[in-house]
Amino acid sequence: MTNTLSNTVISSVLIANRGEIAERIIRSCRELGIRAIVVHSDADAEMPFVAAADQAIRLGATTADSYLNGEAIIQAAVDAGADAIHPGYGFLSENADFAAAVATAGLRFIGPSAEVIEQMGRKDRARLIAERAGVPVTPQYQADSVPADAWPVLVKAAAGGGGKGMHIARDAQELEHALATAAREAKSAFGDDTLLIEKYVPQGRHIEVQVFGDSHGNVVHLFERDCSVQRRHQKVIEEAPARGLSDQVRATVLDAAVALCREVGYTNAGTVEFLVDGDDAWFLEMNTRLQVEHPVTEEVTGLDLVDWQLRVAAGEALPLKQEQITCTGHAIEVRVYSEDPYRDFLPQTGDVRELIWPTEGVRIESGITSGVRVGTAFDPMLAKVIVHRAERDQAIAAMIDALDHSAILGVTTNIGFVRQLLDSQPFRAGDIHTSWLDTRPEAAFTAPECPTEVLAEAARLLNTQAARRLPADGWRLAGPTHPARLRIHVEGTDAEWIEPAAITPAGVYGVSDGARAWLSHQGQSWVVAAADGMRRDKQLNQGGPDVLAPMPGLILLIEVADGQRVEIGDRLGVMEAMKMELSLTAPIAGTVSVKVAEGAQVSMGHTLFEIEADDD
Fold first, then answer.
1. Who contacts 425 (Cβ-Cβ below 8 Å, separation ≥6)?
2. pLDDT of residue 473 exceeding 80
3. Most buried in the list 19, 138, 444, 589, measured by CB within 10 Å?
């Protein structure tokens, strides 16, 4: 394969996206000698992808003004002399109107046609096409006529993807709530609140097939991925190929994916997703774009999927025929999220004080760098870690080692949690299904206690003249003093005296501002502070009578009124942060007082509800 296009119809590309995928596209453009242009919001002005591009164009202060502003993006492309627009994933990548507007402006859209996006980008229309192509689909129901033996069911948005607008209902009462919530999420994320109700398979596997088509009538698959490790229908770990699929099921999903693409005349990259339960496989949906997890397919096939996208968009035929595409070894990808896995995966914010990644035998796709702020404007995914080895067990071991040498100091992430998961017996055996994390099995993971070596390193970092608030231990008139001890505490725990480490313990990473230290060991993170005997840190929502905002966000819904009596666990309202909805529940039984209005933007720690406890 040459490192240039066979024609010059694409010499510059505007990337209508951000973060790690923007950097990923820039890399392939550079290898083909294509000029890479990016757009950005004010929040992203200092992000690495902006600096990496050949040209960067500011579009506006907010996401709506920038990455979701199709008209402004197209105008920026025209003004910059771009030949094509690559939408990445998310934002406008599956918006048929945007794809059509790109073509109308005389630019090439690096993806399928607007007509195909319109058909396959919507789950309801895609179902009908799948049936026409002979692809098996899950049973579907109407809201007012779900059979008694059909529960539980899955409510999902007809438009978009990424787990947005998806909820499980186990009875008619839950269905009413799921429909309202899913419709609200779908309207917010995709501008379309159309919903589907389908059979829910509680222990199914999420298997997807990477497909590619060109304008010359060629369609191929690039084998399958297993994306069953999910929380809230959003993927956490992906693998290629899928472990333990029977020859029959593998042939079914691969053949069905190609048949579906031929049925609609599909071009460029896409993914056909299936739900697999034993020897049964059902079509779920098609994503008419590049996927977040495409690196695992690249690793096992040795191909550059963005390169293929650019070639197909330029009018070239697919570089390889089906029989020339091979699958070698095993690849695993971990998504690194700014979230607290031990608090129901609550999104987190903060400043990246230091960024540490392994340097050998690991592929890192990251959209951040040291010094940037992780806020609430975007999805909480920060990076992806990918490994490829000859066997699955080797890939798991390599990934665990990679995560042991990864740290994002200053922001709470899921790195340590995913490391635990990879090292668990259910994952090693391949026994995890799509609802495994959400159902919290008996082997549920718990937050580990801060190890002694981490505390000792924290004391060393904090034991500077600026942080030394108590006299050194064992002061003498002559001779050396004993090592100064420091009274410190991990956030939320009692303080204790700790002697500093003489040298940094192996595998411990840390940084300090003099008052606090951020530390990591085996991917787990802790915040440690020099103790102040005059006060204790205030913990949010830890059994008190008030409900505080767990992070900055938007109040979407208030579901109680002043003076209303509530029970423990009753839902009081809903807030949105980092593109996710968070339920606000009563920590105690009593009478509620509402302290916030719908539509309000609140900061972390803002009092939302006060509850006067019932008299004993």
1. 443
2. no
3. 19
